[in-house]
Design a protein that fits this description.
eight-stranded mixed sheet, binds 1,6-di-O-phosphono-alpha-D-fructofuranose, 6 helices
Length: 296
């Protein structure tokens, strides 16, 4: 049975993404090649990245109530109607059309991430009213978080069917996944990671959505820390950090840039990167104290 989101504009946004998901999945075939372009983060784009971005842009900018569409694959937002900053019921949608697209070459799991901001982007995560992701795994599933609850769906033929309601992180964490090469980890993070490695099972796929869904399902922690060569980390605040931070916080967990909730991080630029950590609150509390104690 399908459950709709109470806000009609948000419902149209999530329905459009869930209906597009089956098409995106089918359209990956034959689009594994790279295009001669880089995205604003300097990463080589796949045909699939550009195609999925254009498909979502076309569909989402046509929705009455969507005032802006921004994505990891394009330098600037598209202004497409009212002003999210001043008009109530008008939102900005920020998306990572194909998270983990480098997994397409080896045909491993990937995702589509979205955040619905009640402000113009770049915006504070605290202005998010809904967020979620589609996971292109063995089956296609979707997780949608709103201020009320977190729901997991299975997607078939463009329709979404509830498989889990009021999703929360299990109390006893089981899995962990940390990105970046170990020699690149700052000492404080490496010390924390070596404790966690003794306690939990490793689950790291190269696509954040696959790893975060492991954490949402079994409990644990996913992180892509600030690195020695790149203290700002790899992942993007507006398109990855805020939406995933919102989902995990609505599911009773915590998010952190190492110092505070991702949703409280003031953005400067649309394509800002951030150290990103999400999971069970106790594991994130320990991470922040570990990073704090070594910095003093
Ligand atoms: P791509 O979208 O370029 O494949 O990057 C995936 C990602 O943004 C995120 O989904 C992964 O957790 C992380 O980067 C993987 O990074 P590493 O390749 O450095 O492990």
């Amino acid at each position: 049975m399908s459950v709709t989101v109470s806000d009609p504009v948000v419902e149209r946004i999530v329905a459009t993404i869930s209906r597009s998901a089956t098409e995106i999945r089918q359209g990956l075939v034959g689009r594994r090649g790279t295009v001669d372009e880089e995205n604003p983060s300097g990463e080589t784009q796949l045909e699939a990245d550009v195609w999925a971005d254009e498909l979502l842009a076309d569909r989402l900018t046509a929705i009455d109530g969507v005032g802006q569409y921004a994505s990891e694959e394009r330098p600037e937002p598209i202004d497409c109607g009212g002003d999210p900053a001043t008009e109530s019921g008008t939102y900005a949608v920020a998306a990572d059309p194909l998270d983990g697209s480098s997994n397409l070459t080896s045909t491993n799991s990937m995702g589509t991430i979205f955040g619905v901001y009640d402000d113009t982007v770049p915006a504070l995560g605290e202005t998010i009213v809904a967020a979620g992701y589609v996971l292109y795994g063995p089956i296609t599933t979707m997780v949608i978080a709103t201020d009320d609850t977190v729901t997991e769906y299975e997607l078939t033929g463009g329709e979404r069917t509830v498989v889990r309601r009021d999703v929360t992180l299990p109390d006893d964490p089981v899995v962990y996944g940390f990105g970046g090469r170990v020699p690149e980890w700052p000492e404080a993070f490496e010390a924390y990671a070596s404790e966690i490695e003794q306690e939990l099972k490793l689950r790291y796929s190269g696509a954040m959505i696959g790893d975060v869904n492991q954490v949402l399902t079994y409990g644990g922690i996913f992180g892509y820390p600030g690195l020695k060569s790149r203290p700002e980390g790899k992942l993007r605040l507006q398109f990855e950090g805020n939406p995933i931070g919102y989902v995990i916080e609505q599911a009773g967990g915590r998010s952190s840039n190492g110092d505070r909730s991702l949703l409280a991080v003031e953005p400067d630029e649309l394509h800002d990167r951030t150290p990103l950590h999400v999971g069970n609150a106790a594991l994130i509390d320990r991470l922040e104290s570990a990073l704090d104690s070594r910095s003093h």
